[in-house]
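Notes for week 9. Today we move from apo structures to complexes. The key idea is that a small molecule is not decoration. When we ask for a structure prediction with magnesium ion present, the ligand SMILES becomes part of the input, just like the chain. The input block below holds both the sequence and the ligand string. Read it once before you look at the output, and try to guess where the molecule might sit.
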Amino acid sequence: MARGLPQKAKLRGVDKVVAVSSAKGGVGKSTLSVNLAIAMAMQGKRVGILDADIFGPSVPKLLDLAGEPELTDRNLLRPLSNYGVKAMSMGFLLPDEGAPVVWRGLMVMKALQQLLHEVEWGGLDVLVLDMPPGTGDVQLTITQQVVVDGAVIVSTPQDVALLDAVKGTNMFRKVGVPILGMVENMSMYVCSNCGHEEHVFGRDNVQREAGRLGLDVLGSVPLHAAISRLSDSGQPAVLADRAAGFAQVYRDIAAAVLARL
Ligand SMILES: Nc1ncnc2c1ncn2[C@@H]1O[C@H](COP(=O)(O)OP(=O)(O)O)[C@@H](O)[C@H]1O
Ligand SMILES: [Mg+2]
């Protein structure tokens, strides 16, 4: 068991760490991570986001951030910051955007160590960890080396995604990380013209699976063209369209996460 391994450390200057995870890629982890982080910051918290997706970092684009982090006096990486949130990502350490990360084994683990242990967060209430997809070495390393206070499992309503949500849940349980709940993403399609709602991938699938796993559903984010469009242009949806229904959903999920930490 990983629980109690000697190297498990509390991150310097960080009060609580929340991992946003799903074993499957493309279900909306990064989008949720960024919008949750900003919603928490809007609620007065000091928030950071750590993009732990070494092979497919997307936080720089989502937060409209670029450039190389400076080093502090103590040779730590200083996070970049936008929209009231501090951020660190492999994307800032790579030579140019879009360059493939061809490192293997040790190199990847070394980069991950730097991201996990050598960032000067400078006092945070919450650090949101945008986890990479999968339940392999990288995920295990993170959960074994860092005290993660809670995990949020993201899933879309399709069966293939739910299967992976179960895998992710089992992984966190195995390493003793409490699961705060599930978030259903792309729960239904909302037509931006007429507002018609359609449950494209089925209704209540996530609720049913969460029930089986003994987890609560913290919220359901609709599949909305504006979320994707705004994200692609580096504008987090929760900030760019505060009056939208989905913005309220993100705020409610953020409040639920904070309450459970
Ligand atoms: N609720 C949503 N509505 C519309 N598009 C979404 C929604 N959530 C995520 N997306 C889009 O889906 C794609 C994958 O999302 P992303 O957050 O990168 O997933 P992951 O981090 O799990 O790989 C992105 O293009 C994103 O803009
Ligand atoms: Mg991602």
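Residues 14-260 form a domain with the Rossmann fold fold (CATH 3.40.50.300).
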